[in-house]
Amino acid sequence: MCGTVKGLAVNLLKSLLDKAVKSNPVFGLMLGLCPTLAVTTSVKNGLAMGLAASVVLLCSNILISLIKKLIPKEVRIACYIVVIAGFVTMVEILMKALAPAEINNQLGIFIPLIVVNCIILGRAEAFASRNGVVASIGDAVGIGLGYAGVLVMIGAIRELVGKGTFWGYTVWSGYSDAPEALAAPATVAVLAPGAFIVIGLLFGLFNAIGNRRQAAQLAAAQPVRFTTSADEKAKGASAAEPSAQ
Amino acid sequence: MHVGYVEIAIGTILISNMVLARFLGLCPFIGVTRRTSDAVGMGFAVMFVMTLAAFATSLLYKYVLIHPGPDGFNLLVALGVVKEMPADGYVLVLKTVSYILIIAVLVQFVEMVLRKSVPVLYKALGIYLPLITTNCAVMGVALLTTSDWKYQDAPLSLGKAVWMGFCGGVGFTLAMILMSGIRERLAVARVPKALQNVPIAFISTGLMALAFLGFSKLFGIEL
After folding, report:
1. What is the rounded distance in angstroms from the CA atom of residue B131 to the CA atom of residue B134?
2. Per-residue pLDDT tens for A204-230?
């Protein structure tokens, strides 16, 4: 009994991680780029935006998977947009009431702009409209985690490099006896150019890891091919070489 | 600061460029800038829809969503839906929903009209038109022109809102054309494998944004 529960938990965690990392909305699928760059000037902003988008994603996934049979196929996109816009409005009002004023100011128009975030519409069309409620909740949590994770990561890098702080606490404010480049935090990282360059480099890192993994898989597949072809020769088969892979 | 037509133009095209400073419309910016011809097509489609959207949403905002003032006109009151507009905010909640619907309808409408009356243009814009519904630059301009966020004499008047929509489109097109030129050169350059295509596009956008940062506070305009 305990074992199955543990197995279930492990499976659940694995599929969540799979969604968050492998089909990461930003680096894997290239969706939702605008807020990813615009609001990640600090960890706090990144987290606030990530949570807001995840809540909308969760709610819209649940509702759409519940009413998927009622929606006529021809107007489904319009229906999804209305559902999403409704939840975005709720989140907007909630944020105005609960979140600190500075966060509301800095997120500005990007909270209402969640409505045109392709991640949410994409999940509604690709997942929630074809699967049950529980699976849709899992999907939303996984994708939401991946998205919020990326936002927090970019926010942390930009805040550390640009302001020398983390979550508002000072980590470093420059070394006075260091070369000029390290004498003070590089403000450009919190400005617009920094956002583009940071995400470009992170994208490159993601690709590099992906490439390396692919190369490792190829290398692992290689010996198998050789042994099979050797076996074939040993058997004296004159047929064409088996195309492994 | 007084926000006039010239200030809006310089502010939205150069200082706070839609793409390079405001981060709006990044998906098409990265997605369809591999060829200059595509970038120009998308840019003009967005410019067209953005101007119309700014006009439509500004009208909606002024005459439906907000309290019109002592003897102003409000459509909901005129049609008898409500006797009197409730105090600020109760109808305004519907801003996000109504804007996205207006934009979606507008894009559909433009598509139909173009297909009937200007088939050449329709063919040229082709697949870009339906994509514009989920272009956050269009929605972004609509929200910017009708919010009091950052502007002193905002929400902008109808004429200024339309002008800002048009200038936003011009700024977007400018960024698209510049980027497509860079990417056509990058396609034949030697780039490390991991940075090929999208990552290097982002990094060169960063350098371009750095150049546009030089426009900040141009002629003392802050937008």
Report:
1. 6
2. 998 898 888 888 888 887 665 555 555
Residue in A21, A29, A4, A39 with CA at minimum distance from that of residue A158: A39
Report the pLDDT averaged over residues B8-27. 88
Tell me whether residue A7 is in a domain. Answer: no
Rounded Cα distance, B62 and B57, in Å: 9
Domain ranges of chain B: 5-215
State how far the alpha carbon of B60 is from the alpha carbons of A49, B75, B136, B162, B178, in Å: 28, 9, 19, 13, 34
Virtual torsion, Cα A203, A204, A205, A207, nearest 10 deg: 90
Q: CA–CA separation, B103 vs B101, rounded Å?
A: 5
Check whether B71 has a pLDDT greater than 80: no
Which residues, at least 6 apart from A17, have a Cβ–Cβ distance to it below 8 Å? Answer: A142
The total number of structural domains that make up chain A: 1
Q: How far is B70 from chain A (nearest CA, A)?
A: 27
- A132, part of any domain: yes
Cβ–Cβ < 8 Å for B107, B18: no
Looking at the DSSP assignment, which residues form a beta bridge with residue A123?
none
Question: Does residue A20 register a pLDDT over 80?
Answer: no
Residue A241 lies in a domain: no
Nearest to B62 by CA among B149, B157, B168: B157
Cα separation, B50 vs B85, whole angstroms? 29
The percentage of chain B sitting over the pLDDT mark of 90, rounded to a whole number, equals 26
Please report, rounded to a whole number, the percentage of residues in chain A having pLDDT higher than 90: 31
Can you state the percent helix, strand and coil of chain A, rounding each to 5? Answer: 75, 0, 25
Set of chain B residues whose Cβ sits within 8 Å of the Cβ of A204: 192, 194-195, 199-200
**What CA–CA distances, in Å, run from B194 to A210, A232, B181, B199?**
9, 38, 22, 8
User: Is residue A118 in a domain?
Assistant: yes
Nearest by CB: A109 against B27, B149, B209: B149
Interface test with A, best of B97, B148, B150, B196 (most A CBs within 10 A): B97
Q: What is the DSSP letter of A22?
A: I
CB-count burial class (<10 Å; 0-12, 13-18, 19+) for B189: exposed
Distance of CA B79 to the CA centre of its chain: 31
CB-based contact, A81 to chain B, within 8 Å: yes
pLDDT digits (tens, 9 = 90+) for A139-163: 999 999 999 999 999 999 999 988 8
Host domain of residue A20: 13-188
